[in-house]
Fold this sequence. Notes:
The complex is a heterodimer.
Chain A: E1 8-12, H1 43-60, E2 64-70, H2 79-93, E3 98-105, H3 112-121, E4 123-128, H4 133-139, H5 149-159, E5 168-174, H6 181-189, E6 194-199, H7 221-234, E7 240-242, H8 243-252, E8 269-272, E9 277-279, E10 293-297, H9 310-313, H10 324-327, H11 332-335, H12 357-371, H13 375-385
Parallel strand pairs in A: 1-2, 1-8, 2-3, 3-4, 4-5, 5-6, 6-7
Antiparallel strand pairs in A: 8-9, 9-10
Helix pairs in contact in A: 1-2, 2-3, 7-12, 8-12
Chain B: H1 3-19, H2 29-46
Amino acid sequence: MNDLFVQTFLLKVAARCNIDCDYCYEYKLADQSWRSKPSRMPIQVLFKTIKRIKEHILSHELKGISIIFHGGEPLLAGKDFFEQAVTHINGELSSFCEVKFGMQSNGVLLDAEWANLLLRLKVGIGISIDGYKQLNDEHRLDYRGNSTFPRVEAAMKILSQPQYSEIRGGFLTVIQPESNPIKLLEWFRKFGKTQIDFLLPHYNHQRKPPSAYDAVHGYGYGLWLAQLFDYWWNNDIHEIKIRIFEDLMHLMIGGRYAVESFGLSPVHLAVIQTDGEYEAVDSLKSTYDGAVSTSKNISDHSFDDIFSEYLILSRTAKFENLPEKCRECRLVKACGGGYIPHRYHPVFGFNMPTIYCQDLIFLIKHIEKYLLLDEKIRTQLVEHIGSTPTGISSV
Amino acid sequence: MELDVQREMRENLVENRASNDITVRPVTTSMKKIFLRVQDRLNRETDGTPHVNHTSHQEHQDTYTPPSR
C-alpha cells in the first residue's frame, strides 16, 4: 500500500457556529470561504460523500476508517441529520470496514438528550474549552459577548457521568502562555479520567504570537508546557492523558503514529465541506484567503484525485517538504517541523520551520531529560533522535 | 477578563521566565508507570497493531493505547 490514501474523513456538517471565538480559524482569520458555503451539509451531499468513501475503502482495501463530524458547530446539523447520516453510513460501510465516529463540539448545545443520541449512535464527542471561566472567557464568548462557560461546563458534567464513558472524547484546549498551567490541570482533574490536547494557537510568520520572544523559550509556550509536564510527571496524575506529551515521547523513542501536528508520518486526512468541496486541512484558513481551496468536489472527483494538490501531498511526504534547517535538525522525528499552518510565511510560503520552533525545541529537550533516566528508553533516544546520555547537545 | 486576573497572568509569565528552575527528580514509581506506558505503546505499534494518526481536530479515545500491563 502506498501512502496516498485517506483514513480520516472530516465532514463539515455545519459551516456556521453558535459562538464567536475571537481566534477561530474558520471565521476570524485570513480565509473567509465560509461565507459562500451552505450553512448545513445537505443529506444528499453526505450520501454522495459516503459513496466516494466506499469507493476509496474498496480500492485501497482499508480495514478501518474514522469519520469526524465537524464544523463550525456540528450539533447545529440537528439530531435528525445525525440519525440519518450514521444509519446510512453503517448500512453502506460497516459490513466490510470498521467505522469509528467522532465529533468535535463547543458543547454549548449538548444536553442529556443529545448525549443519549450520540451514545446510541456510538459517536464519540470531544469538547473544546480553554479551561476555567476566566481563561475560557478570554476568547470563547457568544455573539452577545456573554460567557459560554456555564453551558460548556454543564455539558462536561453530563459527559463525565459513567454511562457516557464510551463516547467521551476529551478536551481540546488552546494554550494561553500567561496562565498558570498547574491551576488549569487541577481544574480539569475534577472531571475525572480524561484526555486533554493542549493546542498551540494558529499563529505563523506573518501573524506572530503576541507574547514576547526570547531565544531560549521562544514565545513562552514551550516553557508553559514544560512546567505542565513537570507537574503532570512528578505527581502521579495518570488519570489525565495529555496528548502532546504522550505523542512526543512516543515519537522521540521511535514511534511512528501520532497526532498530525508532530512526527513525519503521512497524514491520511481529507476535509469535505458542506457543499461537497474537498479542502486542504481546514486550519490552513489561518494563513491566507483561499489556502484550503482545491476546486475539486465529491461529484466530479475521487479521493485519490486530491493528492495532486500540493498542500495535501506535502502532508503525505512530510520530510521531503520541510525546509533544510528542519531536515538537518536532530529533533525533526519528534516535532516533524511543526504543524503546517504555523510554518506559513508571506514570502517563503510553507518552506519555513514552525513559528514555535524554539518553543518545541525547549519542550522536547526538557522531556528528553526525564526520559534519559530510564536505561532502555535512553538507548532508544540515542538511536532515534541522537540524544547524548547526559542530554547535552547543541540543539 | 477582570484586571486582577490579567495582572496575575502577566505576573505568572514573568515569574515563569525568570525562574526556569526546572529540575529532574529521581525516578519514582510514578515515573516508572509512564516509562512502561510509553514502551508499551511503542511495542504495540511495532507488533503491527493497526494505528492511524489522529488529527488536531479531535481528541480521540483511541489516540492512546490502554494503560500498561
